[in-house]
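Task: fold both queries, return tokens.
Query 1:
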Amino acid sequence: MEMPRVETSEGLFRAAFAIARHELPAANVAQAESAISDMADTVARRVHSQSVEAKLAHLHDVMFDLVGFVGNVDDYYNPANSYVPEVLRTHRGLPITLVLIYKCVAERIGLEVRGINSPGHFLAAVRDALPNDSGSENATWMYVDPFYGGELLNRRDVSRRIAETTGRIPDNSAQWLAPATHGQWLSRMLNNLQAVFAHTGRERDLYAMQELQSLLTG
């Protein structure tokens, strides 16, 4: 399997989708991208302001209240939680997969979103001002947890959540707030699947994920 170029959000989405084709060979990426577009269109029809706050509020209303995306706390280690087409179908997934869908929808309505490569719990960060706003070069980032229904977090909240997940207390919370490159994003998704397959003795699936990882890093 050839991994798509991952520099853009579209490339990241398609590469993550390619991972899912290991177990879902018939999955249709065009249908998945259409689902993303439909959610973004629904949000856009509701927004009557260009402010980040208005866009964010309607985005969360649609994704988390109307559609119902949330973390799969009942079956966290199911590989399907890492597969984009399954997460789009069930609206349940891991933090990292939910952040990817969140990012793709949000960017279509003009928000700027990063993945935050925190240990134990992947998060989203949303720029608090649009690029053409006055003073936006000094903009800060709001942290969002799609796994818990789009909960908004400050830096202290992030540190507390990651400490609860990993049992580690950081010397500097900034080290947990670094944005993920798209390569790191995909690598972490593959690492998650490798861990699951290793734990459940699925050696052929483990080797397939290792092969994809070598394509990503090669």
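Query 1 returned. Query 2:
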Amino acid sequence: MTDRIENMIIVGSGPAGYTAALYAARANLEPLVIEGFLWGGLLQQTTDVENYPGYPDGVMGPEMMQQFRGQAERFGARFLTDQATRLELTNEPGGVHRVYVGDEEHRARTVVLAMGAEHRKLGIPGEDELGGRGVSYCATCDAAFFKDRETIIVGGGDSAMEEAIFLAKFASKVTIVHRRDEFRASKIMLDRARDLDNVEFLTPYVVDEFVAGEDGALGHAVVRNTESEESRELPMAGAFIAIGHDPQSEIVAEQVATDGEGYVLTDGKSTLTNRPGVFAAGDVVDHTYRQAVTAAGTGCQAALDAEWYLRDTPEVPVPEAMPAASPPVAQWAPSKPGS
């Protein structure tokens, strides 16, 4: 532990974390970004990005994240390429939060949570190997690459139907593969998907394996009927997995308010959590849009919210011992500066 108390520690990276770092650095806050070993978030696992403003010719996801990171660093952001292992968040406005990397303690007046979310995977052979080569988790991001080609959606909820409806604008055929004859999707979303001429349903089936074609990209999937156990090959160029996301909020789950799925809750249109001086941005908050541009937007908001908090909240002397973290929060109970 050093004697330094940071103005801001950002836990996580990706578009939200790096944008927060950029704005905080330009405000002379010299933020410390604990970016994780797999820095850059989900865009590090993405190939072509064609829907981010300012890149008319598209950009590779890892290249974009390197540019985000470099821009923040240019203005004074500092980076620790390691994993935050524990947080101790104070409930006292103006107090000091502690973020640990192993046994190494870092202290800060504000913390921005930008840990993101992970795609929920099927966990089957070929899924990881063909990621970015036919297997995708975002139709909004990648549908245009499958124009006039056959595709599938795996899932049965509203997200799967939304993905299918969007993908159907591009693909020649979309087959929705679901393990049951009944769907979790709402009737209105299910009806919208069923009304499309190029959308078909394959139930009750599961995907057991993705197999590459001669060009090394996805060629077909092995699907199995869950009742008869009969398997068959389903030719396709693209497969979109829409079975949900897992927000990476475990590290703060007992200290900040979260919803039933683990997404961090924020106060109204702000990024303020129920802890004073603790803000959240990006996919750890957002279970609706989950786009790079929306994550970057909330990263900007978090940095501005934190800057205003530092400006308006008197500092509390640092105690020698950190009080124990509060018990899990059962409901939303914001503690705003000055309240």
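Both queries returned. Flag for query 2: Residues 292-312 form the longest helix (21 residues).
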